[in-house]
Amino acid sequence: MAAQVVAREAPNRPMVPISYYLLLAAALFCMGMFGVMVRRNALVIFMCVELMLNAANLTFLAFARMHGDSVGHVSAFFVIAVAAAEAAIGLAIVIAVFRSRGSVLVEDIRTMKH
Amino acid sequence: MNLSQFLQTAPVAPDVLAPSLWLIIALPLLGAFICGVFGKMLGRANVNLVACSAVGGAFVLSVLAFWATSDTDPESRRLLSFFVNPFGTERDYVRYALAHDYGTWFAVGDFRVNFGLMVDHLSGTLLLVITGVGFLIHLYSTSYMEHDESYWRYFAYLNLFVAAMLTLVLADNLVLLFVGWEGVGMASYLLIGFWYTDPAKAWAGRKAFVTNRIGDFAFLIATFLMVLLVGAFTEQANERDYTMANSSSQRYSAALQEKGTVTFLGLQKMAEAIPEGGGGAVMLSTPIAAGPLEGYTFGGVMTAAMLLFLLGAAGKSAQLPLYVWLPDAMAGPTPVSALIHAATMVTAGVYLFSRMSALLVLSPTAMATVAIIGALTSLLAALIAFAQDDIKKVLAYSTVSQLGIMFMGVGMGVFWAAVLHLVTHAFFKACLFLGAGSVMHGNGDETDIKKLGGLRHEMKWTWGTFFVATLAITGIIPLSGFFSKDAIFHGVHHNHLEGLHWVSSVVYYLGLLIAACTAFYMTRVYLLTFEGQRSKEAKLAHAHESAWQMTLPLVVLAVLSVVSAVYAWPLMKAPGDGRPQPVFENFLSPVFASMNRIVATGKTVALDTSVPAMGDYVFAWLVAVSGGALAGFLYLRFFPARAGQPAPAFARAVRRTAQNKFYVDELYELAIIRPVKFMSFILFRVVDALLIDTVAVRGTAWVTARVGSALRYVQSGDAQAYAAVMALALLGGVAYALIQVLQ
Amino acid sequence: MNIELILFGAFALLTLLSAGTVIFARSPINSAMALVSTFFFLAGLYVLLWAHTVAVLQVMVYAGAIMVLFLFVIMLLNLGESPTRGRPTLARIVGGAATLGLLVVLGIALSKLPSGPPPSLGVEGQATFGTMATMGQVVFTQWLLPFEAVSLLLLVAMVGAVVVAKSRI
Fold first, then answer.
1. How far apart are CA B338 and CA C99, in angstroms?
2. How far is the C-alpha of B207 from the C-alpha of B213, rounded, in Å?
3. Which residue has the higher pLDDT, C10 or C79?
4. pTM of the model
5. Is residue A111 part of a domain?
């Protein structure tokens, strides 16, 4: 068992800096946010929100790797669970809205007006 | 086994009973809860049963507790009811007492208050009075309130009152006592205004409450002063001080930490360490070195605190200047007047000072004030009682007057006699009030004694008991009232306050006058109500005697007001020199032992322990009889003979002034209530109506509404616009953070 | 060049490409499929970070469960390509610009970070870090209450989804 582990460890030290992951996460987050800002379809906006959540997850995991601490993993796990709940509710709302208005475009859903 | 051995062998051992003391309070509280919440569902009979058995249960427990305070091992004759005083040395025992600490109520920094209950001979006596008389009055009420719709509310309040009063008596510290103090005040307010649909009665309740609040405020300030005083004492005292009090600094501060700051035992120890002559670092004339009281002496602060306690006690016990609420409190049901405004609550002030006797004797000034206030109140109330025609009002003023006598006793250092008078007064005044209630019940709620009369033949039981109680209060040998009152007057005459010798004689002669007045007005009430012919203005043609639930308590109380005279008889031998000593003084001596030690070292008061001689008795008796005889002459011979003619001028003048209660209410109206009302009006107009209402409240609403309607246009309903704003904010925040970090 | 760096580069590039497809595809179904592939590549990145368990969860929960839900809804609502492109409103322009600005700011911030490789996990760490056992250890001891709260949240979400989707608004 120990020998196996040593073999995995031995050849090379980790090469990719954590900041690369963070940059990637930032880019992913901004792409998701961009989608939320510009798309009209509520479903696609939802997907973009999922992108943003994943960017956050990536950051969590990157930091967990950096500190060698499992708390980041647990957080990511919770984020996934919450995302599942959010998707269920959100999609239910989309269905309900579609039933009542026949559209899923955000510009057609302006009931929050004053 | 002889009687004394029987009385000293408790059925329940003190250490077994002590942890269950809380039940004495909990039972009436539970009763109040059941009657208050489920009373309407339970129905009248069940409510009666619950309320009476709650108080009855508390009475049984009180008897056990009282018994346990004197528990002695029958074999070795060794006392079993004692515990180590936590504030003294390990060998300092509090004898004839049991106590239990139920843990911390709250602790703020060094200040701690525990749920501690203690029963000694003083609080034990009061326990019996409260639960015993309380039970009789509950029983009486079941009949008295039989036609009232809100019977469940009545019994809930009455049980609540008993619970609060028991808390007051059982508490082993000032703060817990204050809980009871406020509790009885609230119960009293609720019961005075019991028939709240009548605005006058609701108003009387409010008057009692507000007047009491003034006293309670003083009580609180006094408590704070005590806290500061204890703090200063622990800072400045040296071991010699503690030795004087049979304690040590280590034990004392540990007990302060553990038991709380304002426990009575702790305050007592402090008082024992303070007197002059011991040679410690803290004496009455020592200035306080630091803190808010810096520069004042211990004695000065003690006097101030005691005077504030006096104001507090004056509020609760209806003394000058706060007595005005008690006569109006007669608006409540009559059993309430008997229980709260005669037997128990109003004696709380006397109890408070007896409980803190060790502190009070440190300040002759405060004692003199207490005695003089008591004497003046007593005289004023007795004079007002001359001309009141409402039977309950007469009894109310008589209560004020009798409380004044107790205050005289407390002020002159005859604590035991004051407490004895408290007990006997509870018996005969409760009997009188219940008798008055019975008279009202049997005469269609008629309270005007001018419209009663001749009831002697129609209400035999009521007449008999009322007669006995009247004899007791007027001070006729051999009833209890004579002995307890005489014990107070004897003590007042022979005790002397250091530097204030004149107080003793002044108060004594006022006391004789009061005794004569008491006899006069009580005889008048009795004669007008029960003797002579039935008045032509009577509401009912024939009175009817009340049910057994009402007459039985009357009989029991009448018997008690006769037999309790035994306590004042010098049947015991004093512990030291074997002189004859009154039973009650002997009985309460453990409670006042600390006070006696302080008096012995401090010499602030010269206490006389002689018993009255036969000549003193005869003199006091003559005074009472002369007052009664005068009333008898006036109301049996003089006025009936002149029926139809206008009364003589002197009688009319006396009557007018007395009937108007010496214009005290009017004076208060002019000097206090009007200015306060005027100030309140200004405050109402300027601060409340203008600043708070118009500017602050409506102004805020107006601004919010304006801003809101302006911001409405931002709300487009477009979710993406909102998201864009959020994005901008995020960008701004992150950019700001970045700039901060880079710099 | 080492294999880790190559893999990272490949996954990163593919993730960004797929994400771009998600936000720019005309048809929701294309977006959804691109999102699935994004999740897969992200899972690869997670593995590179020694987060095996989370990577597996990512594939199962996200790519599996959540995306199936999305696809169901798209098909249920029968959404085709939207006939017209939306007008570029002020809100969209401002939001897009702010997002790009945020990207720039974050880029500047992150480029200031030291770019050395992360510390080695060590022999013990490599054997345990990110495994199911370690995570289970932490979740069921230190994070038990949040874990239970999340289970409650999922229940509420489930019931809520049924109620909302069933009734008419």
1. 82
2. 10
3. C10
4. 0.69
5. yes
Q: What pLDDT score was predicted for residue A10?
A: 41
Which residues, other chains included, contact A78 with Cβ-Cβ below 8 Å and sequence gap of 6+?
A: C143, C146, C147, C150
CA nearest neighbour of B497 among B305, B325, B367: B367
Which residues touch B529 (CB under 8 Å, ≥6 apart)?
Answer: B391, B439, B449, B452, B453, B455, B466
Return the SS3 of B171.
Answer: strand
Q: A19 in a domain, yes or no?
A: no
| A101 neighbourhood in chain B, CB within 8 Å | none
Q: Which two tokens stand for residue B237?
A: 């005292």
- The count of structural domains within chain B is 3
Which residues, 6+ apart, have CB-to-CB distance to B27 below 8 Å?
A: B54, B55, B57, B58, B61, B163
Give how far A114 is from chain B: nearest CA, Å: 6
B718 with A107: Cβ contact below 8 A: yes
| Residue B306 near residue B288 (C-beta atoms within 8 A) | no
CA distance B339 to B346: 9
Rounded to the nearest integer, the mean pLDDT of chain B is 86
Taking only Cα atoms into account, the Rg of chain B, rounded to an integer number of angstroms, comes to: 29
Question: Could you report the per-residue pLDDT of B592-608, keeping only the tens digit for each?
Answer: 888 888 888 888 888 88
Q: Are residues B439 and B305 in the same domain?
A: no
With contact defined as beta carbons under 8 Å apart, do B529 and B453 qualify?
Answer: yes
Q: What is the CATH number of the domain that holds A69?
A: 1.10.287.3510
Domain ranges, residue A75:
40-114
* Contact predicate B357/B418, CB 8 Å: no
The answer to whether position A78 is within a domain reads yes
Same domain, B570 and B448: yes
Within this chain, do residues B427 and B463 fall inside the same structural domain, yes or no?
Answer: yes
- For residue A9, tell me if it sits in a domain: no
ipTM of the complex, rounded to two decimals:
0.89
Please name the residues in contact with B255: beta carbons below 8 A apart, sequence gap of 6 or more: B86, B87, B266
Residues B515, B633, single domain; the answer is yes
| CB-defined contacts A:C, below 8 A | 255
What's the confidence (pLDDT) of residue B177? 94
| Closest Cβ–Cβ partner in C89, C99, C106 for B727 | C99
pLDDT tens digits for range B551-583:
888 999 999 888 888 888 888 887 777 788 888
Q: How far is CA A40 from CA A53, A88, C40, C68, C92, in A?
A: 20, 20, 26, 22, 10
Residues of A in contact with C79 (CB under 8 A): 41, 43, 104
Q: Lowest-confidence range among A8-12, B105-109, B444-448?
A: A8-12
The whole-angstrom separation of Cα B481 and Cα B468 is 11
Q: Is residue B73 part of a domain?
A: yes
- A44 part of contact set with chain B, CB < 8 Å: no
Residue B704 shares a structural domain with residue B639: no
Owning domain of residue B697: 664-742
Least confident of A30-39, B74-83, C133-142: B74-83
pLDDT of residue A17 exceeding 90, the answer is no
Residue ranges of domains in chain C, CATH in brackets: 1-80 (1.20.120.1200), 128-169 (no CATH)
Angstroms from A16 CA to nearest CA on chain B: 24
Does residue B683 sit in the same domain as residue B605?
no
- Is B131 in the same domain as B22? yes
Is residue B311 a part of any domain in this protein? yes
Whether B449 and B583 map to the same domain: the answer is yes
> Over the stretch B140-190, which tens digit does the pLDDT of each residue have?
899 888 888 888 899 999 999 999 999 999 999 999 999 999 999 999 999
